[in-house]
Amino acid sequence: MAVRKILLGVTGGIAAYKSAELVRLLKKAGHEVRVVMTRGAEAFVTPLTFQALSGEPVRTSLLDPEAEAGMGHIELAKWADQVVVAPASADFIARLAQGMADDLLTTVCCATEAPIAVAPAMNQAMWSNLRTQRNIHLLGEDPQITLWGPDQGEQACGDNGPGRMLEPAVIVRMLEGMSSGGLAGKRVVITAGPTREPIDPVRYISNHSSGKMGYALAVAARNAGATVVLVSGPVTLAAPAGIDIRHVVSADDMLKASSQAVDEGCDLFVATAAVADYRPENCASDKIKKSSEVMSLPLVRNPDTLATIAGRSDAPFTVGFAAETSDVAHYAKDKMQRKNLRMIVANDVSAPGLGFNSDNNAVTVFWADGQETIGPDSKQIIAQRLVTLIGDHLKQG
Ligand code: PMT
After folding, report:
1. Could you tell me which of 14, 3, 64 has the C-alpha nearest to residue 41?
2. Taking residues 333-351, what's their average pLDDT?
3. Residue 16: pLDDT band with limits 50, 70, 90
4. Which atom of ligand 1 is nearest to the CA of 192?
């Protein structure tokens, strides 16, 4: 990875002790690191710790005449080519989301043009709180900001749930993925989420796809320099910034929207969507009444978006996903051949806590003469590694 100038913001939380290890790993990877601490962070770790590890003076105050006489806050903001805030407390996230500049770290975040990665760390109830989630949605809409995590699991307070800071080694790997730039100048179309096939005006057939894998892939492709169109089935995720999102409902809609996006120009097409294979033959115009004990619903095959795009005479480099519960490699390779794909990402969705509607995944990618297993890991990490791998194959033609 190229040497980078990383400004690490440390805010007040017990995970601040992990940031010392983060500095050590970043230095070991050859990066220049400068640390800015909030007042809350100083209650958990001393500036001296970060100074010793980074080899640079640590900044803690906006209005410090001595420090401002050296590298002032604007110079600091210009110096960084990447800002990472880890841990990012609920309070810091709220202030960042509102664009406040009431301490050195928020001021630097306002003044910098560098990308800002935010690794939240807080109690699970604070993370799930409506107001925190509203702020997280705001950050998600900011093209300069990427959210890393949080992780799930046991917390310092004894609770269990989402809110743990990503491990320092994971944050370093996220940085590696961000700097790959492997899709610079490429036009990428990604499908994500489920489809809904209407039965009557109030009911539909669908599945458990949350869209998380596809959205993470879209963000990773955007971060790697691509122009991204995301064709999304109905999900509850915030629209990621800097991505052209096209909302669809049914498999028919997904084919139409994807074909149109590919017509507009596409180097790479990736289908992560869990498209319903069948739809009701007829959609009743009125709500179906329960009149008999048993009811049958004739279903007809849906169009296959992935196979249609891969079968075009001007087909882009096309990558499919395969969600399987048994004999994963066999079925995935068969799909790759039948659908005429360049690569396929096989997803064993039988493992608990992975695949559908979870934050984590584990995949094996197959191509004509090779394969690579990625994970188990967060969908964000999986997405970054997939983008790097697919980008390498795309370059080879
Ligand atoms: O959304 P998440 O909760 O994050 O979960 C992610 C995921 C498990 C949905 C994802 O990682 C995944 O495995 N996606 C593929 C799901 C699937 O249903 O695969 P399939 O084996 O049915 O289809 C194979 C491929 O053909 C897929 O790329 C699919 O998008 C595509 N397809 C299938 C049918 C169809 N009518 N049109 C298609 O484009």
Report:
1. 14
2. 94
3. very high
4. 1
Angle between the 212-223 and 168-178 helix axes, to the nearest 10 degrees? Answer: 60
Q: For 346-360, what is the mean pLDDT?
A: 89
> Which run of H or of E encompasses 174?
helix 168-178
User: Phi, psi at residue 331, to the nearest 5°?
Assistant: -65, -35
Using N-to-C axis directions, what is the helix angle for 104-111 and 90-97, rounded to 10°? 40
User: Which pTM value belongs to this model?
Assistant: 0.78
Q: How far is the CA of 76 from the centre of ligand 1 (A)?
A: 45
The 10s digit of each residue's pLDDT in 230-274 is: 999 999 988 887 889 999 999 999 999 999 999 999 999 999 999
Q: What mean pLDDT is predicted for residues 158-177?
A: 88
Q: Which residues pair with 318 in a beta bridge?
A: 269
- Domain 187-396: which topology? Rossmann fold (3.40.50)
Pocket flag, ligand 1, residue 275 (CB < 6 Å): yes
pLDDT grade, residue 181 (50/70/90)? low
E strands, the chain, are 5-10, 32-37, 82-88, 116-120, 145-147, 151-154, 160-164, 187-192, 197-200, 203-205, 227-232, 244-247, 268-271, 278-280, 299-301, 317-324, 343-348, 360-367, 370-378
Task: Give the distance from CA 29 to its chain's centroid.
Answer: 23
Per-residue pLDDT, averaged over 340-354, amounts to 92
Positions marked active-site: 157
Work out which ligand 1 atom sits closest to the CA atom of 215: 4
Verify whether ligand 1 is closer than 6 Å to residue 357 (CB atom). yes
CA–CA distance, 30 with 1 (Å, rounded to integer): 9
Q: What angle do CA 356, 362, 365 make, to 5 degrees?
A: 110
305 C-beta closer than 6 A to ligand 1: yes
* Residue having the nearest C-alpha atom to atom 27 of ligand 1: 321
Domains 5-180 and 187-396 share a fold: yes
- Indicate which residue's Cα is closest to atom 18 of ligand 1: 274
- The class of domain 5-180 in CATH terms is alpha beta
Q: How many CA atoms lie within 13 A of 283 on its CB side?
A: 13
Q: Where exactly are the structural domains of the chain?
A: 5-180, 187-396
* DSSP code of residue 29: T
